Amino acid sequence: MGKVKDEQLFTLLRDFLLVYLPNQRKASSNTVKAYRTTLNQFLKYTAEQKNISVLSVTSGMVTYEMVNSYLDWLSAEKNAAPATRNNRLAAIRAFISYAAACRPEYISIASGLAAIGIQKNDRFAKVDYMSEEAVKTLLAEPDTRTEIGVRDQFLMIFLYDTGARIQEVLDVKICDIKVDRTPTVTLHGKGKKTRIVPLMKDTVKHLQNYMKVFHPGETWMSSEWLFYVERKGIRNAMCDDTARLRIQKYAASAREKCPDVPLNVHPHLWRHTRAMHLYQHGMDLTLISQWLGHKQLETTLIYAHADTEAKRKAITEAMASDPFLEAEPVNYTVSDEEILKRLYGL
Fold first, then answer.
1. Are 225 and 237 spatial neighbours (Cβ–Cβ below 8 Å)?
2. Which conformational region is residue 137 in: left (phi greater than 0), alpha (psi within -120 to 50 degrees), or beta?
């Protein structure tokens, strides 16, 4: 292992991620993970631009120009949306602000980064989602004669039915699921908030089949991860990169059969797609907002409360049959993209 050139920088990074965020800010593990991912990516980008190793990066390289270049690279090369770009900038600023509070020499760096502007969202940007025919085709791709095929198909079904963020799905443990009269799953969302969403009848059937294959003998009180990978006999929660790569694999083959399958199928697209389908089938936007776990919906919508059974009935009425079982191709027209865009957090 090489020698760290700027030991102070990496010590501050360690303390920021391991002490300050979890202990003082009380940040969730997912928030800490997001900050770590951003800072690692930025350090790697800086090292590549300077043609040096990551361990040779110094605080003097964290400049207005370098951060701006990194953000431009995200937009151009990674197709990052404005919200993603702004989140990355916020993470870097948060670390530098922490460093400046600990070490006065970082104050000038923080001042420079403050001049970087926030990128505004296009208010009329297109909301990406899949048609019902695309969903049907994609869910038919995994070979369910194999264990991996069973897992991958159920992962996509679970993403679609719950409308959950990928990290919320990967954080689900068996004990978070209830399969009694009203089947539900408890999702652990942003800011340590939880919400309970209903599971549809057909999803429960797929769940029970998945459990027989991947969790034989487990009870519903088990604290095992619902989706896991096993290495050397040790089970760990599946990571989002694994989920993304598996979904992209099936999307590539599904696209050959159905041109409606988008070029870029990512885990979050399932969330957009489910919410859009429910909206287009007449489900109330306020219920969709609650179901997605958003705090508020915008000016014309009021706060509303619906218990789990009411949500289940609303979803059932909105979609009598789920696309992954019986869907027919439908052409849709979105009447209010402004509200929908904000609903999805774009």
1. yes
2. alpha
Q: Alpha-carbon distance 20 to 13, whole Å?
A: 10
Is residue 249 within 8 Å of residue 260, measured between CB atoms? no
Q: What is the mean pLDDT of the chain?
A: 84
CB contact at 8 A, 215 and 224 = yes
Distance set, CA 36 to CA 13, 31, 54, 95, 343 (Å): 9, 9, 14, 10, 27
The pLDDT tens digits of the residues spanning 250-263 come to 999 999 999 999 98
DSSP-H helix ranges across the chain: 7-15, 29-50, 64-77, 82-102, 107-113, 132-139, 147-162, 166-170, 201-214, 240-255, 267-280, 285-292, 308-318, 323-326, 337-343
CA distance 75 to 267: 19
Over pLDDT 90: what percentage of the chain?
A: 60
For the packed helices 29-50 and 82-102, what is the interaxial angle rounded to 10 degrees? 90
Question: Phi/psi at 230 (nearest 5 deg)?
Answer: -120, 125
List all residues 6 or more positions away from 3 whose beta carbon is below 8 Å from its beta carbon. 55
- Do the Cβ atoms of 311 and 198 come closer than 8 Å? yes
pTM of the model: 0.67
Q: Do 298 and 342 contact (CB within 8 A), yes or no?
A: yes
pLDDT per position as a tens digit, 14-55: 999 999 999 999 988 888 999 999 999 999 999 999 899 899
Q: Which residues pair with 234 in a beta bridge?
A: 231
Classify 228 as helix, strand or coil. strand
Instruction: Let me know: does 220 contact 330? Beta carbons within 8 Å.
Output: no
